[in-house]
Amino acid sequence: MTNRTTYRVLAAATALLTLAAGAGCSSSGAGADPQRVDVVAAFYPLQFLAERIGGDAVRVTNLAKPGAEPHDLELNPSQVGEVSDAELIVYLKGFQPAVDDAVAQNGGDRAFDVTSVQPLLDASAGGHDHEGEEGHTEESGGKDPHVWLDPTRLAGIGDQLAQRLGTADPDHAADYTARAAALRADLTTLDDEFKHGLATCQRREIVTSHAAFGYLADRYQLDQVGITGLSPDVEPSPQRLAHVIEEAKEHQATTIFFETLVSPKVAETIAGQVGAKTAVLDPIEGLAAGSDGDYLSVMRTNLRTLQTALGCS
Ligand SMILES: [Zn+2]
Fold first, then answer.
1. How many Å lie between the centroid of ligand 1 and the Cα of residue 95?
2. Distance of CA 209 from the midpoint of ligand 1 (Å)
3. Cα of 230 to ligand 1 centre, how many Å?
4. What is the tens place of the pLDDT at every residue in 124-149?
5. pTM score, whole prediction
6. Of 57, 97, 149, 225, which has fewest CB within 10 angstroms of its CB?
7. Which N-terminal residues, if any, form the signal peptide (predicted)?
8. Is 31 exposed, middle or buried, given 0-12, 13-18 or 19+ CB atoms closer than 10 A?
9. 293, 287 in Cβ contact below 8 A?
10. Which domains does the chain have, with CATH numbers?
11. Which residues of the chain fall short of a pLDDT of 70?
């Protein structure tokens, strides 16, 4: 802690000297890097947004480490310190309780809750509606946090993030707006690819390891059957497993989807019972360790996986 503090003071002093020697451009905030806006992102898709829109005017720290599943993220003391020191905290209220707590204690008006831009859908959206089905009733009152899996909703969040960055750093406001527009164009292209790529398919049911794909299903008229609920660390009950197997057979599912950051065991068990294959459908809650992809490339991989599994032409 002492070393780190010393380093930060030195870094800040060096940067100030550099500034004083330079043309005297103004710096807002007093983060670790006075020339850039210190942004803390709660998990990968928000890091992607902040980096694309912030460009070289921001320094983004992701609280969730690569390869780690972010739902049950716990914060160590230095991460709580990062939340306290950040000039902007980008998070999704209701997704990660530890982040919600840190923001409630230290976030103040520096926190940007993406659900303030995109109100969350009910947990059942885009999914099978099974009245009284065990495992669904439990979460029927819940909200689905996986809003980033609809590219158009992510673009809307990006526009608002550009506004917030522009307020924190007015000198670069026009840059933030321009980069958000460029990102929106990329996300619109992606959305078009999904719309056309999934327009004509033999099946529309997707059996997924956790119910992360409600927004994707809602946007592209798919029908999600989640093996577990909204959270990946809840074991499905035997009744739920039996029900998913029945659904998969009824809809002649050829593929049971699992995720990069969660064990494929349950998906493999169901696939074995149904005579289906397994494939990765990535909810992009985090990048796999060592991945050189980004949100756009992983979404395109997801699209190809869906086209194959659902028999789309
Ligand atoms: Zn999830």
1. 8
2. 10
3. 6
4. 655 554 433 433 333 435 899 999 99
5. 0.85
6. 97
7. 1-32
8. buried
9. yes
10. 28-118+129-193 (3.40.50.1980), 198-310 (3.40.50.1980)
11. 1-32, 124-141
